[in-house]
User: Which sequence fits this backbone?
């Protein structure tokens, strides 16, 4: 291998490692202040908020996604403990139009919507439960049922 080839290989490895570390650091982080103009999450699921439900956690998953099962467990547990939260999981293999409408490129992705259907937050990867609960707290505590 020539010296130039070796330098190109090392540069490619450095770039790939840096990219991997950035993606890993961002995985599971709650992002608020997302772009406006998202479709109504409740309408995408074909449902409406009932009773005290203030937040819809819409999980976009795929059948071959191992982290999707972990995400489903975290979200189902949160929804069972918080009466104001509903968790709905959509398989993007069966409903790709939902992923397109929400500009979702990877699974699992969780998008939180308020009672009116406005997007509150997004999480790519397995959500950090404490961070997600903290991000939802103002919405759950700040509005009357």
Assistant:
């Amino acid at each position: 291998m020539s010296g130039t080839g070796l330098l190109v290989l090392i540069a490619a490895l450095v770039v790939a490692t840096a990219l991997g570390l950035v993606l890993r650091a961002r995985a599971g982080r709650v992002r608020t202040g997302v772009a406006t103009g998202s479709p109504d999450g409740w309408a995408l699921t074909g449902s409406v908020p009932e009773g005290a439900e203030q937040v819809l956690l819409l999980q976009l998953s795929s059948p071959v996604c191992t982290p999707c099962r972990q995400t489903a467990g975290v979200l189902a547990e949160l929804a069972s403990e918080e009466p104001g939260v509903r968790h709905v999981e959509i398989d993007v293999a069966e409903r790709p139009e939902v992923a397109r409408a929400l500009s979702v490129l990877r699974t699992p992705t969780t998008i939180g919507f308020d009672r009116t259907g406005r997007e509150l937050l997004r999480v790519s990867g397995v959500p950090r439960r404490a961070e997600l609960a903290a991000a939802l707290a103002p919405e759950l505590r700040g509005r009357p049922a």
